[in-house]
Task: structure prediction
Amino acid sequence: MPLSISSSEPATARTGRITRVTWALIAGAVVLYASAELLARFGLEQVSTMHRRLLQEARAANAFHKSPSPSKKTVLLLGNSLLLEGVDMERLHAGLEPRYEVQRFVVTQTRFLDWYYGLEALFRHGARADRVVLCLTMAQLVSDQIRGDFSAHVLFDAQDIWPVSRDSAADLTITSGYYLAHFSAFYATRGELRSVLMNRVASSVQQMWHQAVISPAVSPTGSQLIAQSVARLGRVNQLCNRYGAEFVLLVPPTQDRGDFLLARAGAQAGVTVVQPISNSVLSTAYYQQDGFHLNRRGAQSFTDAIIREWMK
Result:
């Protein structure tokens, strides 16, 4: 009599059951990811006012064209939260009519590299304007940082990811994430989805996080800073000229001490640099609690100064 007891279930049956379980898990994961992707592509726009605003401006910027009327100049106005908070668009439109048609496109937490490659993609998609105005501080102009996955999805074309990764010194792991983010809305906007959830569940925590991430960085100073600025201003100026647009750098008022050097850099690069309000003019009463973004009063002052500058 045999001393061992073998399973009465054939090995092929066990293998078949394991295979079915494996495929069920894979199918479940695919369904879960597809649901998350649909939520990111269509749901985030419904629940997030900021994301809805961003997508509307992105569509309008991509479809923007020069006016058939020679008396009206078209302006593509690009920037980050300093533009969003610092310029009253209704006031600007009213003050510049009928000489200018302005289309704003704001992506928060962006810097020079985000917008250089983002602008190149806009031109590639057919956007055209008489004037491109980029609103950045000195620190943002010379920064090598980008808004990572989010910019890869919202601003860049696939062909831009490798050069922007090189310019921002991203390693291969980060670069591969940018490619994934470009094609996956869920992967690219997972941070925004988390922010929406936090804002609904714990708005006070979200506000503290917001105050932490928007604090201004310390600007470098000196001849090296000017040299970096000249190179970058010249680079985006060449891009704009290639598509028949004038390039203007708009400097928003902040408490950043290095911004006064931008006028000198612009003169060396042959680029118009407009700083309607000097950083030393506005007191803290014109800024939000973070000391970086303009409040409503500050935005009105900055907007009026832009109108005066452009309507000369």
Observations:
- Residues 208-219 have pLDDT under 50 and may be disordered.
- The beta strands are 73-79, 100-106, 131-135, 246-250, 272-274.
